[in-house]
Write a structure and sequence with these properties.
Strand order of the largest sheet: 3-4-5-6-9-10-11-12-13-14
Order of helices and strands: EHHHEEEEEEEHEHEHEHHEHEHE
Number of domains: 2
CATH architecture of the largest domain: Alpha-Beta Barrel
Bound molecules: S-adenosyl-L-homocysteine
Radius of gyration: 21 Å
Helix content: 25-40%
Distance between the termini: 46 Å
Strand content: 15-25%
Length: 351
């Protein structure tokens, strides 16, 4: 019986090098393969520059299958949302967000999510399963190939954010591996400070991030510093209170490249009042904190509302008074339900 093949896209460069070495194959093979399949986006599994022995090994060991693009939705602001079908027919979404003719890609880390945040469309699905590293890397590669074919003049993806479906730190091993794969210079080659992992504040994952991860950034979903409100918005706050999460974030040495930032989702008449802004300001004053304000993006069936731009601005002005650097994030892709928190593969066909 021939052993079944494994996905090439799950291997970090180090793992591939170890594999080649233990099979007495030339050391140059893994770099060539990374260059060919990750960087040059080549579809065929073989390679002229590889030694004959390596070619045989590659053919018998790896499969090069990628997740399939099921549907593509393009918004007039150039945002692109991909519905991506995995091997077992479950689906996730990835979104390309344009800026100056380049793109940030928003990746999913799980099918569904276990965090059950009350404002998030994905959470209504529950957690189906974790994504494997090749399924995370695969989202990037299929989106990149789509760009090269459809928008060849502006096909550069410069940033990666793990802000799609799922809690990335709840699927730590796959997310870590995918970051290691993205960083390889001979391959996709994204710098660590261009990668951001967004978390609901899953403290065990943050501890592992500090100890084990390449120096990628973290964004913590804050959304309220008032316990009763944050408990309602992000139920894991009851287990890992935001005070502990922020205290932990404060132990990260301020590096030139590694940042912890905070995202604050503004929901009309719930957490967007002057009282909320002052509570946030008092809580974060003097700390190493940068805040992105995100006006709530509505989705079918939600009870929450989006504040007006004047209300968002008023909130920002109060935070300015506490000298906390604050940015209002402009919403992109909401026309096609591709904005933060609007990703839900279960009812995708109906919206
Ligand atoms: N689980 C991770 C990453 C996924 S969500 C996390 O919680 O951070 C990515 C970002 O989108 C988070 O800041 C999240 O709070 C925000 N978000 C979720 N639902 C949203 C919605 N309906 N409108 C605006 N932002 C939302």
């Amino acid at each position: 019986m021939t052993p079944s093949k494994t996905s090439f896209y799950q291997y970090t460069l180090l793992e591939l090098q170890d594999l080649f070495e233990s099979n007495h194959l030339p050391k140059s093979g893994p770099l060539l393969l990374y260059n060919w399949h990750h960087k040059k986006k080549n579809i065929s599994p073989c390679h002229d520059d590889l030694a004959k022995l390596s070619i045989d090994f590659v053919e018998k060991t790896f499969d090069f299958e990628l997740p399939k693009i099921d549907t593509v939705q393009e918004s007039t602001d150039k945002t692109v949302k991909f519905l991506i079908r995995l091997k077992d027919n479950l689906k996730v979404e990835a979104v390309l967000i344009p800026f100056n003719s380049k793109y940030t890609i928003c990746l999913s880390s799980q099918v569904g999510c276990a965090m059950n945040c009350s404002f998030c469309f994905t959470g209504t699905q529950g957690l189906k399963r974790n994504l494997a590293p090749e399924e995370i890397v695969g989202q990037f590669i299929v989106a990149q190939r789509w760009l090269s074919e459809n928008r060849p003049l502006d096909d550069k993806i410069l940033n990666i954010v793990y802000m799609g479906q799922g809690e990335p730190l709840h699927n730590f091993d796959s997310v870590k591996k995918s970051c290691e794969i993205f960083l390889v210079r001979h391959g996709i080659g994204i710098a660590p400070h261009k990668i951001t992992i967004s978390t609901a504040g899953y403290l065990p994952g943050l501890e592992r991030w500090k100890a084990e991860m390449p120096k990628v950034n973290i964004a913590v979903s804050l959304h309220s510093t008032i316990k009763e409100k944050r408990d309602k918005l992000i139920p894991i706050n009851q287990r890992y209170p935001i005070e502990d999460v922020v205290a932990f974030a404060e132990t990260i040495p301020e590096g030139r490249t590694r940042f912890v930032t905070y995202e604050y989702l503004l929901i009309k008449d719930f957490n967007d009042t002057p009282e909320d802004a002052h509570a946030t300001g008092t809580f974060l004053e003097g700390k190493n904190a940068y805040i992105s304000l995100i006006p709530f993006n509505p989705f079918p069936g939600t009870k929450y509302l989006r504040p007006t731009w004047d209300e968002v601005e008023a909130f920002k002005i109060i935070l300015d008074g506490y000298k906390i650097p604050t940015l209002v994030r402009k919403t992109k892709g909401d026309q096609i339900l591709a904005a933060c928190g609007q990703l839900n593969t279960k009812i995708n066909k109906e919206v």
